Amino acid sequence: MDIQFARHRRLRNSANMRAMLRENHLRVEDFIYPIFVVEGEKKKNEVSSMPGVFQISLDLLNEEIEEVVSLGIKSIILFGVPDSDHKDEVGSGAYHDHGIVQLATRQVKEVYPDLIVVADTCLCEFTDHGHCGIVENGQVLNDPTLDLLARTAVSQVKAGADIIAPSNMMDGFVAAIRHGLDEAGFEHIPIMSYAVKYSSAYYGPFRDAAQSAPQFGDRKTYQMDPANREEAIREAGSDLDEGADFLIVKPALAYLDIIRDVKNNFNAPIVAYNVSGEYSMIKAAALNGWVDEKTIVMETLLGMKRAGVDLIITYFAKDVARWLKEE
User: Annotated pathway, please (predicted)?
Assistant: First the structure.
């Protein structure tokens, strides 16, 4: 057969050859593991819509952290879930020095001071209306919310948080938090901004875990329209100008094009949030025997790395850490 063609298969003909030429890799250092901390004692409540994910009370938190550290995971992100009677219209539990996130942070840093603690900096888990800011006449107010976010960030850092991760999508939230941290003497604390956060149906299971569903309306006036692409560049650019150190894109799986756009446009660490709906779909399919969980999880997370992310916030972190150890 006298024809000319490329022999690409030469570079795939053995496992070692494929490993040698692999362009993207998953490392345990790439993962940030989310933990939901609740008030009370002896609580380890599995989230019904997120098999394998639990709400954990402070007295059982050390056991969870010990497992995380033993697997080689270097970073966690803490979400606080207060009792309903501790919620109010301004989310004061978010910035109280003895709030659930602050208590959990102090406890973690006391036992494992080198573990990186990222604090979710938002109000929605702590407000009685479930929105990410101050509400007046049914409207979420932007500017009055900024001061509360800054107060929350400062309180979290005083408790020992290494990174602040504001997720509220108020205009100017990074600038307000950066100013608040600097004024309090925390110029060295980085901000991992939820810079590109879409108003997504993929968040449903998270709202079960964090008990943070809005009590009226939705979050479309402050989270982004899933139809928009160029808006992501404007949002990310603003956050960097205001002092962000990391840029989060959330969700990840349906927004890989956005991740690549952000990576191509900005020289900053890019973080993908592999969100609850993405996790739950794979878990449900695996529990039904429809997919091979390990293979599909690894492929999915590699897709995020290939799209350009440096770090991945994922509920699969412990599973993947185990699989990587086995390999």
Answer: Porphyrin-containing compound metabolism; protoporphyrin-IX biosynthesis; coproporphyrinogen-III from 5-aminolevulinate: step 1/4
Q: Is 250 designated active site?
A: yes
End-to-end CA distance of the chain, in Å?
42
pLDDT score for 114: 96
Q: Enumerate the β-bridge partners of residue 311.
A: 271
Residue environment code for 133-165, b if the CB has 16+ CB neighbours within 10 A, otherwise e: bbbeeeebebeebbebbbbbbbbbbebbbbbbb
Q: How far apart are CA 74 and CA 90, in angstroms?
A: 33
- Which class is 23-326 in CATH? alpha beta
* Known catalytic membership, residue 43: no
- Confidence (pLDDT) at 86: 76
- CA 26, 28, 31, 33 dihedral sign is positive
* Nearest residue to 222 (alpha-carbon basis) of 199, 251, 253, 192: 199
Considering the entire predicted model, what is its pTM? 0.92
Domain ranges of the chain: 23-326
**pLDDT per position as a tens digit, 196-228:** 999 998 988 876 665 556 565 566 777 889 999
Among 43, 87, 158, 250, which one carries the catalytic annotation?
Answer: 250
On average, the pLDDT of the chain sits at 91
